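Why do we care about 3D structure at all? Because function follows from shape, and shape follows, mostly, from sequence. That is the central idea of this module. The next example makes it concrete: a single protein chain, its amino acid sequence, and then its structure expressed as tokens.
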Amino acid sequence: MCKVMEDMRNESLKQGIKEGMKEAALRMLAAGKYALDKIANISGLSLDEVKN
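And the structure:
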């Protein structure tokens, strides 16, 4: 049971981090100072995710 709860917590944490990176990418896009590939590299998101 503890393993299941730990896995759920870890998955939730990963999702939260990814959402934070998406928000950061949106701010970089809005600033207009970064190329899409640079945003992907900095945020850890895929280039397709940044384009979307």
